Amino acid sequence: MGIAVDEVCEVLRIAEDRLDPVPHLGAGVDLEFLLGLGKVGEKVILLLDADRLLDGGDAQVLEGALLAKAS
Questions:
Q1: Is 35 inside any structural domain?
Q2: CA distance 44 to 55
Q3: pTM score, two decimals?
């Protein structure tokens, strides 16, 4: 499985001291795919956990849902 993107706008290097853990945003917010927050100048950038996004178990769930929809 992979990810296809239409466009990459920017590639950044963020120093480790500019990374923060994901804050708690309330009970209704799912943060399982976030790795942390990066600060670049005045911007705060959400860092996605690519390993979690491409987890094989999630792919099987998605495949099952697609197969059920096709039936």
A1: yes
A2: 26
A3: 0.59
